[in-house]
Amino acid sequence: MAYITLDRNKLKHNYDYLNRLFDGNGISWSVVSKLLCGHPLFLEELRKLGVTRICDSRMANIKAIKKIAPDIETMCIRPPALRAIPDIVRYADISFNTEYATLEKLSAEASRQGKVHQVIIMIELGELREGVLRDDVLPIYEKTLTLPHIDIVGVGTNLSCLSGILPDYDKLNQLCLYRDLLHAKFGKAIPYVSGGTSVTIPLLTDKVVPAGINHFRIGETLFFGNDLYHDTLLPDMEHDVLKLYAEIIELEEKPLIPEGRLGTNLEGDTPEFDRNDRGKTSVRAILDIGLLDVEHTRIFPDDNAISCCGACSDMLVVDLGENTTQYKTGDTIAFSMDYMGAVRLMNSRYIGKRVIE
Fold this sequence. Notes:
This protein is α/β, with parallel strands linked by helices. The chain has helices spanning about 10-25, 40-50, 60-70, 85-90, 100-115, 135-145, 170-185, 200-205, 220-225, 340-345, and strands spanning about 5, 30, 55, 75, 95, 115-120, 150-155, 190-195, 215-220, 225, 230-235, 240-255, 280-285, 300, 305-310, 315-320, 330-335, 350-355. The protein has 2 domains: about 5-235, TIM Barrel (Alpha-Beta Barrel), CATH 3.20.20.10; about 240-355, Elongation Factor Tu (Ef-tu), domain 3, CATH 2.40.30.
């Protein structure tokens, strides 16, 4: 079975790096754990690090977190589906919200459970994903204050995830100004101004994040050490906390050009081949991983001599060239991956999960 590993020491290095960065700027932060897909083995590693706040968008994952560490503060960072409201109140300490009708139902459910549910109101600042439109912020906030079992503990925004709108000082300062306006008008303290995500980290190191932004939600940079603002890597972080290993289940020297009439493959594509390669061969390996597990464009062999030929549902075909490394059947090939590749792999029950030192 192909498997993905989490390197405990590299994860700790990145976590400690981010802790120092945020502590040095007077900012609290929460780990976004949705990459881990609720897998208890890897969630346990977060608990061992001393993580006190975790964000996720899936209730199954939040339940898994609470089962492992009931004292960890959980944030549901996707506006709640109405059918999920009982579980939201039961397992999420805080939820991100944009709809007053949903807030009403959260209050009613919190009353049934004998709780006061905490919420962060998300504000639309140009990304066109979730968020209350600017003209509606004050009316929704005012009405929500009347709900007896809801406590507004913050305002937040999301940038970069859908439309690719980058954060900047102006947009983040707008969020701070909303906090100031709401506090001045209604007289209620707003503890969280949640404007930072992984893409905002470079702005923090460049000292261009407004002082009012006091909460970040960090996932990708913790696990990959990415500078998402500049599409590069942060030099002081580890970039391969997660690795994929797939086993060679067939290894043969084969022609570069297939034989027969071309139709479409499993993905509905008609592959193209260079006619100059007719008559040439190379060593090809089939690996025990396929499109059911990950898109092959999301994983990258550590060995630069290896290239990907394509994949079907259960198998990945790679070109080893002349196989100068002398791979053989039963050997494993190591891959790095991007964020979406890792999510797909973590979500596949056909991929083993291991923690390594």
